[in-house]
Amino acid sequence: MSITKNQDSFTVSYLINKLGFSPESALVASNSVHLKTPDNPDSVISFFEKHEFSKSQIKTVVRKVPSLLVSDVEKTFLPKLKFLQTKGLSSPDLAKFISYSPTFLLRSLEKQIIPFFNTFSNLVHSGQKTITAIKRYPFLISYDMNIIDTHLLPNINILRDHGVPESNIIKMLHQFPSALLINPDRLKEIVEKVGETGLDPLILKFVHAVCILAKMSKSIRERKVDVFKKWGWSDKDIWECFRRYPFCFVNSEDKIMAKMDFLVNKMGVYSSCVANQPSVLTKSFEKRFVPRGLIVQHLLSKGLIKDFKLSLFDTSEELFLKIYVTRYVAEAPELLKLYKEKLKK
Q1: How far is residue 63's CA from residue 35's CA, in Å, rounded to a whole number?
Q2: Rounded alpha-carbon distances, angstroms, from residue 99 to 63, 85, 169, 176
Q3: Distance separating alpha carbons of residues 306 and 329, to the nearest angstrom
Q4: pTM of the predicted model, to two decimals?
Q5: What angle do CA 123, 192, 173 make, to 5 degrees?
Q6: For residue 7, what pLDDT band results from cuts at 50, 70 and 90?
Q7: What is the DSSP secondary structure assignment for residue 123, as one 8-state letter?
Q8: Which are the contacts of 345, defined by CB distance < 8 A and separation ≥ 6?
Q9: Angle at Cα 9 formed by Cα 5 and Cα 13, nearest 5°?
Q10: How far is CA 278 from the centre of its chain?
């Protein structure tokens, strides 16, 4: 991409030479900010460096909000960082948070940040829990105050109306805040769906299930259901599986398909057995399925074992090694080396 005379050549040159932007990304950023001298952007970069931002974090912040380079750091940045530091956010945490959500620096401290922080702290009964929520979901404190009334409070009431205890609502607020910032109609549909599985709203697993479904669109959820159906599961099987272990829905459609294919076609496991032990689907394909499957197949081929339990993919590393590796070292001394080599790949 060429730089024409009409484009802001100084801005583009500065972003390339000072921050390591590519010519293309520098041109894009120059549409949002026009630098005349290096003085102000240098002071901005120096400010970030002083507050322990890495070079890559500074570059990310500027790429997301180029106009920050012309800000007055003492008036615009410093009071906001000091506010969060007084609440317990360390410099490394601040750098991570702002690199995720640099629009925070454009918010009004008095009209938006402080009122939102205080309101959220009142809801979770703790300023420290609000900090935890910000760490988990950096965009949280960049929202406008009106989201409290339009999303947060209506969603809390939906949970209350469906029997979720206050203690679990508070846990959801500070551990999974993004789930309570979705459209209330959508949350209501999700809560009702989770209720239909038979999960008790009084237990924490109900909240976990709601949060898992809240992280995906309804269309993605339906696609995951369709993948399970390809393996002979009925709707009843699928939602019973979800009721037992909601985290089985965290996998993408491709990962669900790959894991089911490995278990059924490569390991010879009945599809129905997986439905009865859905926690196995949350294990790593590369670090758990493949190396352990290889060891078991090796043992089967040598006649050292006649069968195996699906729990081999669920068990701890120590127990797996004890049951399937060290026990057979005398008959198959290559097992441990084979296992370690597969783990490294």
Answers
A1: 15
A2: 10, 16, 29, 20
A3: 17
A4: 0.87
A5: 20
A6: very low
A7: H
A8: 286
A9: 150
A10: 21
